[in-house]
Amino acid sequence: MKQSEISKLNLKDLDAKIIELKKKLFDLKMSSYVSELENPVLIRNTRRIIARLKTAKTKLNKDLIS
Predict the structure, then answer these.
(1) How far apart are CA 30 and CA 43, in angstroms?
(2) DSSP state letter for 36
(3) Fewer CB atoms near the end CB (10 Å): N or C, the chain?
(4) How far apart are CA 3 and CA 49, in angstroms?
(5) d(CA 66, CA 64)
(6) What is the sign of the dihedral through the CA atoms of 40, 36, 17 and 66?
(7) Who contacts 1 (Cβ-Cβ below 8 Å, separation ≥6)?
(8) What is the pLDDT of residue 35?
(9) Residue 64 is inside which H or E element, if any?
(10) What is residue 35's DSSP assignment?
(11) What pLDDT does 65 receive?
(12) What are the sequence ranges of the domains in the chain?
């Protein structure tokens, strides 16, 4: 997910996307414990996307308060 896509989302969409990606991250981690992942970089990329979404959510909250 690119930054331009993230900036178009509203608060509800950001929350939904964060929850969805956290579930995906959990599934990736569990499958990596059980067996070797085909692409282990997916865990790192998913973590980074979640961080970007949380940053955008914080920024949006601050903009709404101000």
Answers:
(1) 11
(2) -
(3) C
(4) 9
(5) 6
(6) negative
(7) 17, 49, 52, 53
(8) 93
(9) helix 41-65
(10) S
(11) 87
(12) 3-65
Task: Calculate the CA dihedral of residues 20, 21, 26, 32 and round it to 10 degrees.
Answer: 130
* Amino acid identity at 31: S
* Domain 3-65 belongs in CATH node 1.10.287: yes
Paired tokens of 48: 């980074």
Please give the structure tokens belonging to residue 60.
Answer: 């949006």
pTM: 0.91
Residue 56 confidence (pLDDT): 95
Which tokens hold the place of 15? 């929350």
Token duo for residue 34: 């059980």
Q: Which two tokens stand for residue 3?
A: 């930054």
